[in-house]
Design goal:
The complex is a heterodimer of chains A (216) and B (210).
Chain A: H1 2-18, E1 52-56, H2 62-74, E2 84-86, E3 95-98, E4 118-123, E5 127-129, E6 135-137, E7 141-147, H3 152-171, H4 195-204, E8 211-212
Parallel strand pairs in A: 1-2, 1-3, 3-7, 6-8
Antiparallel strand pairs in A: 4-7, 5-6
Helix pairs in contact in A: 2-3
Chain B: H1 2-18, E1 29-39, E2 43-47, E3 49-55, E4 58-69, E5 73-90, E6 93-114, E7 117-130, E8 147-160, E9 164-177, H2 180-184, E10 190-204
Antiparallel strand pairs in B: 1-4, 1-10, 2-3, 3-5, 4-5, 5-6, 6-7, 7-8, 8-9, 9-10
Classes of the chains: A alpha/beta (216), B mainly beta (210).
């Protein structure tokens, strides 16, 4: 009786072991170039400086778009390489997102086709030797968002997309994808990072950074 | 999760049915254990360079209650908690990814095959739970399903007064590991081995007769 039970248990264990695939890393899409020029130094936020602190000007739904973009990019990682938080004090932020001009119309995000009713730019600061031989940004990364007239939902959709795109630049992708469906392509038509965007940002965050962020 | 629970329920039912219930004179025992758990690699990946993600050796606490079944058998229900960092390891070094807690619930069947020495077989379920902060950037961003686990162990014990007993436990457990985030990028299941080494203090309402 006992031997039979022991055999049954051993069989169950063996079955469990056999049922497991020893899967190694999956195939990911080829990343695109993330530097503006292939000889440029590399920048990304080091893991020692997480979470990255974002400050969003409290204008319309801008803080929500920033939070959405931040979370979408964080969700491209599996090993905690990048994640961010919103902070109340711009002086404590690593990345500042502003919107000069009037607040955008208040409208929920929809699945409507993308309309170019907004724009954005990520100002990447100059960098230099911080005195210890280490390259470091001389200021915070600054994102400036703007919108034009249009249907309120088109403006909201556009701001959400372009804010996520600019956050991609602020994270270290200083180039654009040549594939129009990628979030980091221009014009921005994707709502979220694609598998190619994910592969690119993952690759970037697994290469040592040459430039460190601005030190407050 | 429902699938995991169903399988666990079937396994527990089968184990209970298999135990010969005789002469249970309302004897019960309660155990508190403490020790450390080593775990094998959860994920092996390559992004630029190859690396692994593996829990660090985890301080572990356990509680169990049970009852003797016949003269040489015992059945117990236990829960254990192990907490450590999930660590990314590669050639250049290692870094902590996120604090990770592993909960394990098991039904244990023990067989005393020598004086003071017993063997144990377990079935149960294991659940991984990562810390909230930063979880959205990890493989644990979605809830990880309960996974069935099986295990074997050996215990050396010694009476400590009339109602107490102290034991040294060595246990091995095996389960499959996956998360939704890993599924989404094309990983499959991975088998995970866990080894616990620890000490247990046991109280019984009956006199220790061994």
């Amino acid at each position: 009786m006992l031997k039979r039970r022991a055999r049954a248990f051993a069989f169950a264990v063996a079955l469990g072991l056999a049922g497991c695939q020893s899967v190694e890393s999956p195939n990911r899409p080829e990343p695109y170039e993330f530097r503006a020029s292939p000889t440029d130094p590399i920048f990304h936020f080091p893991s020692s400086q997480l979470p990255v602190r974002f400050w969003a000007e409290p204008k319309g739904a801008l803080p929500e778009y920033v939070e959405l973009g931040m979370e979408m990019w964080a969700a491209q990682f599996l090993y905690g390489e990048f994640w961010g938080v919103l902070v109340d004090d711009s002086l404590q932020a690593d990345i500042i997102v502003r919107m000069p001009g009037p607040p955008p119309p208040d409208a929920p995000l929809t699945d409507d086709p993308p309309q170019q009713t907004c724009d954005g730019v990520a100002h990447i600061p100059d960098y230099g030797d911080d005195g210890s031989g280490q390259l470091r940004f001389e200021a915070r990364i600054d994102i400036e968002m703007g919108w034009f007239s249009g249907e309120p939902s088109d403006v909201a959709n556009c701001l959400a997309r372009v804010t996520a795109h600019e956050i991609g630049h602020a994270m270290g992708i200083f180039n654009h994808s040549s594939v129009p469906s990628d979030l980091m392509a221009i014009p921005v038509t994707a709502r979220q990072p694609t598998a190619r965007d994910a592969s690119t940002i993952q690759t970037l965050y697994h290469i040592p950074t040459d430039i460190l962020p601005f030190e407050q | 999760m429902a699938d995991g629970l169903r399988r666990l329920a079937i396994a527990l039912g089968a184990a209970i049915a298999a135990a010969p219930v005789t002469a249970v004179h309302a004897q019960v025992f309660a155990e508190f254990g403490a020790g450390a758990t080593w775990s094998s690699i959860l994920v092996r990946d390559t992004i630029v360079d190859g690396f692994t993600a593996q829990p660090a050796i985890a301080p572990t606490l356990g509680l169990a209650i049970g009852t003797p079944v016949g003269s040489k058998y015992e059945v117990a229900i236990g829960i254990s908690w192990a907490h450590s960092d999930l660590v990314q390891k590669q050639a250049e070094g290692s870094r902590d990814i996120i604090p990770l807690t592993v909960w394990t619930g098991t039904l244990d069947l023990r067989w005393q095959f020598m004086p003071w020495v017993s063997a144990q077989a377990s079935v149960g379920a294991v659940k991984y739970s990562a810390a909230e902060e930063g979880r959205e950037a990890t493989m644990f961003r979605s809830d990880q399903p309960l996974e069935p686990t099986v295990g074997l162990g050996v215990r050396v014990d010694h009476p400590l007064g009339q109602h107490f007993l102290v034991a040294l436990d060595l246990e091995w457990g095996f389960h499959r590991f996956r998360t939704q985030a890993l599924d989404e990028v094309g990983f499959g299941y991975r088998g995970v081995n866990r080894v616990f080494l620890g000490a247990t203090l046991r109280w019984s309402n009956a006199e220790t007769t061994r």
